[in-house]
Amino acid sequence: MANPYPQVYLGDRIVAAEAATVGVASSAVLYGLSVYTVFPVHVAGAARTAFRLDDHFRRLEESCKIIGIDRFAQEWDYQRFYAAVVEVVGQNAPVEDVFVRATVHVVESIPGTRVRGCAIQVSIFVYDAVPIVPQDGMRLKSSPWRRIPDNAIPSRAKVNGAYVNSVLAKQDAIDSGYDDCIFLDGNGHVCELSAANIFLVRNGTLITPDVSCDILDGINRRTILTLAAEDGIPVVERAVDLTELYIADEVFVTGTSAGAAPVFEVDGRTVADGQAGPISQALRKRHAAALRTDDLHGWITPLN
Ligand code: PMP
């Protein structure tokens, strides 16, 4: 377990972490009616930079739009968001890399199961950048729990309540001695992990489920697709069968909290020779570098 850094942005100001609460009668608590994103901040001495901050803001806006949280677009724009991020990161003055979680909570009290016009509060907190999966070769288990389909709770909206699905699957994987789960959809196609996207390599081609496969449109997934294409690696986004992972040359996962980390085992079957393959290793390196500096894509936003 971990604590947020002491200063938290809530509503329109910085408050002490202990005072950063939303009400027990809010829709956020009653229904899990909040949407969020997590992005990394790199710290180098006094300089702090966020990775793909504008893309994270856009995804937050899109999550709100999908769910119908209309007050966010009325009350927030990127400039306000940027200023709040600068303020909360600055007040906490981290000395090493951190993650920042920004959430739009529906705080209307007992409104019933509806959303439009309901009051919101934005919270932003900083916490230690601890990966959620091993970085040196993880073991995955396909889950008995199915991914919630787009026509039930859409995965492309990063909505807090939907993470009950992830908790069920991740806990099942942990209870079975694995590091994380692989979600399948109702047809047995591979979706993603509890909080990371998945890639495989076969015969030199990088393959990943496309964005209509009930996945989160991960920002690190997009990053890897861009970097791979630039490196001349053939890339295919398509439906993936579970058994393709069993016979893959390489498997790795991506996410803000997962990094770009190799998978050594799926359902008790060793992936290739059980080591990080050349494409995984090369992209992991490129990804780690891109989080810190990037001259080409405009992915880095200074926070001071
Ligand atoms: N899928 C799910 C379900 C997630 O929660 C996350 C983490 N945000 C990801 C994928 C990876 O997304 P990103 O690269 O934007 O962190």
TrEMBL record:
Its cofactor is pyridoxal 5'-phosphate. Transmembrane segments: none annotated. GO terms for molecular function: transaminase activity. One of its GO terms (biological process) is amino acid biosynthetic process. Coiled coil: none annotated. Keywords: Aminotransferase, Pyridoxal phosphate, Transferase. The keyword Protein biosynthesis does not apply. The keyword Cytoplasm does not apply. InterPro entries: Aminotrans_IV (IPR001544), Aminotrans_IV_CS (IPR018300), Aminotransferase-like (IPR036038), BCAT-like_C (IPR043132), BCAT-like_N (IPR043131), Class-IV_PLP-Dep_Aminotrnsfr (IPR050571). It holds the Pfam family Aminotran_4. PANTHER family: AMINO-ACID AMINOTRANSFERASE, BRANCHED-CHAIN-AMINO-ACID AMINOTRANSFERASE-RELATED. Belongs to the class-IV pyridoxal-phosphate-dependent aminotransferase family. This is Branched-chain amino acid aminotransferase. It comes from Nocardia colli.
